[in-house]
Amino acid sequence: MISQLESPSATNIIYPESDGQPMADNTRQFRWIMILYYNLEWLFAGEPMVFVAGDLLWYPVEGNNTIRQAPDVMVVFGVPKGDRGSYMQWREGNIAPQVVFEILSPGNTQTEMNKKLRVYNRYGVEEYYLYDPEKNDLSGWLRSEADLEVIEPMDNWVSPRLGIRFDLSGEELQIYRPNGERFASYADIQRQLEEQQQRATDAEQRATDAEQRATDAEQRATDAEQRAEQERQRAERLAERLRAAGIEPE
């Protein structure tokens, strides 16, 4: 039994791996979460100490399981890749996510988003981006000394941490890698794979056609050689008949 002077050990506190909320409220929000997550995963695929997660509960304070957030996407520099049930900051070298993304849905309230901003501001996030796909509106905050401050303007803004550029000139947000390549959706990737597969099939067909033409040419050469041999043999037989008749062929 725990006496009145004792408190439960922090090790006995349970940190749930789910907040009971769905990852997304609609298909558009889900699509954007997937675009951000997978493209950032690909961007840092060769960096073993960059961890990218989607809809993962982040606990910034040991011993307090009520302070938590599950950013739609977060990027953490300085911790290894790998599976986690949640992100307990004190087990990760006390490194807070440096970059977080939220995709706004009609179900999000202003109070809820204000609370998220306060948490991100208080617990060390360096860059926070909030995108509303319905309105094609992107907001951003960048840490300056102690606080997150609004980024203005956001169009063509380049993330200091990620090196990616945000383009709001079209009907929906476009994001570009540092090398200028656009973030791709699943449909884009599927189309690219299909195009690559078609190019490979076409190249294989061209190689097959070239091989067939080479085989046909070889056959024609063989046929021509056989005809020449047949003509030579006929000429020899004719010469023999002429000699038999007493005529010396020229």
Look up the CATH topology of the largest domain: tt1808, chain A
Q: Using the CA coordinates, give the radius of gyration.
A: 35 Å
Q: Based on CA inertia axes, which overall geometry fits?
A: rod-shaped
Under CATH, the homologous superfamily of the largest domain reads tt1808, chain A
Mean of residue pLDDT values:
88
Q: Count of helical segments?
A: 3
Low-confidence stretches: 1-8
CATH class category label of the largest domain: Alpha Beta
Tell me the strand percentage band.
Answer: 15-25%
Going by helix content, strand content and strand pairing, the class is alpha+beta
Describe this structure in a few short sentences.
Strands 1-3-5-6-7-8 form a six-stranded mixed β-sheet, with helices on both faces.
